[in-house]
Specification:
By secondary structure, the protein is of the alpha/beta class. 47% of the residues lie in helices and 11% in strands. It has helices spanning 20-31, 43-64, 70-77, 101-114, 130-133, 168-180, 197-213, 219-228, 230-233, 239-245, 248-256, 271-278, 295-319, and strands at 12-16, 35-39, 78-81, 92-95, 121-123, 143-147, 157-162, 184-187. Bound molecules: nicotinamide-adenine-dinucleotide. The site of nicotinamide-adenine-dinucleotide has 24 residues, from helix 1 and helix 4.
Length: 325
């Protein structure tokens, strides 16, 4: 495998699965000048993705000073594909179908039948161990995890995860691709379910649900406290820098000791989460979540999130400029 990608305009990336994340990933790649082949099994997904990309490219022009010509130019570099065979010419594949190991592995097997041997295949799984996913691959050395975050064309976040069989070349190419599309990639030293960010987040969600179930505070109060405290520093630094800024290990060793035994270490899903999941609560998608949403409220919540994501991106780029590729 060559550890180089062609120039951006000559690099074709296939995005398999054009749902919430896949369409954002396609937007990001098209925004930065790559050729993109989008594949999904649902015809509706193509329509939604096209609308999303159009809007996302507009945001890149408006908020990140991308060339206004991009508003037309991406269309020539974007191909919608209804058939795996169309993926044959691509240089890199990003899979972003539903979070189900069996379905993902079936998709990898289809992809491996058509793409070249040297083409890396990255999975945007949120939490499935990469070593497990690559077990059924014909060429597991070109397989890795590439975990994006919503909105994928705005965030700098990208976790790259090597499984036990992933080659160094695959990781190197993926780092180069990530840098070329405005990301600040982190390569994990070890595969671990949930990787970095979802492990931290799931531990925090579990604790938030425990606070509700123990009657300490309601959902709205917890959200408000979190936003006003962690929301302030989490856009500037991580937990370790934050501890250093506010007393350091000496203080935290004292403060945490009596609290740790009271924190949740449950291994089963909290009842509050299960009850809502059983009702198919999909948050703003169907108006039912920890809060209820009218269609207008759902739209407003989404719009505020996008505006905020751009503000954070701009601040982060100012404080911590990205390395040039
Ligand atoms: N939602 C998030 O915030 C988030 C963040 C990071 C990673 N992820 C991960 O990204 C992946 C996709 O998540 P999403 O939120 O975009 O889901 P989604 O349900 O919005 O999209 C999944 C898409 O995959 C398509 N699909 C399903 N099976 C397919 C198949 N066999 N072949 C081709 N297309 C198929 C569906 O039609 C759908 O368009 C998951 O692995 C998820 O865990 C999600």
């Amino acid at each position: 495998m060559s550890n180089k990608l062609p120039s951006i305009s000559e690099t074709t990336v296939a995005v398999v699965g054009l749902g919430l994340l896949g369409r954002g990933i396609a937007t990001c790649l098209l925004g930065y000048g790559f050729r993109v082949i989008g594949y999904d099994r649902s015809s509706e997904a193509y329509v939604t993705a096209r609308r999303y990309i159009e809007q996302g490219i507009g945001e890149l022009v408006e908020h990140a000073n991308f060339d206004p010509l991009l508003k037309q130019a991406w269309k020539d570099r974007y191909q919608e594909s209804q058939c795996f065979d169309d993926l044959a010419p691509c240089d890199f594949v990003i899979e972003s179908v539903v979070e189900d190991a069996r379905i993902k592995q079936e998709v990898f097997s289809q992809i491996e039948k058509v793409v070249g041997l040297a083409v890396p295949i990255a999975s945007n799984t949120s939490a499935i161990p990469i070593t497990q996913l690559q077990e059924t691959c014909q060429h597991p050395e070109r397989f890795l995890g590439m975990h994006w975050a919503e909105p994928a064309h705005v965030t700098r976040f990208l976790e790259l995860i090597r499984g036990e069989q992933t080659s160094d070349e695959t990781v190197e190419i993926s780092v180069a691709l990530a840098r070329r599309c405005g990301k600040d990639p982190v390569v994990l030293a070890k595969d671990s379910p949930g990787f970095i960010v979802n492990r931290l987040a799931y531990a925090m969600y579990r604790e938030a649900l425990l606070l509700v179930e123990e009657g300490v505070a309601d959902v709205e109060m917890i959200d408000r406290s979190f936003r006003n405290a962690c929301g302030l520093w989490a856009t500037m630094c991580g937990p370790f820098r934050w501890m250093d800024l506010t007393g350091g290990p000496a203080l935290y060793a004292k403060a945490m000791k009596p609290v740790l035994p009271t924190l949740s270490s449950a291994t089963k899903l909290p009842d509050t989460l299960l009850r809502l999941a059983e009702k198919d609560a999909q948050g703003i998608l169907n108006g039912q979540g920890f809060y209820d949403y009218t269609p207008k409220e759902a739209e407003q919540a989404e719009a505020l999130f996008r505006k905020h994501a751009w503000n954070v991106r701009q601040l982060t780029d100012e404080y911590f400029p990205l390395e040039e590729e």
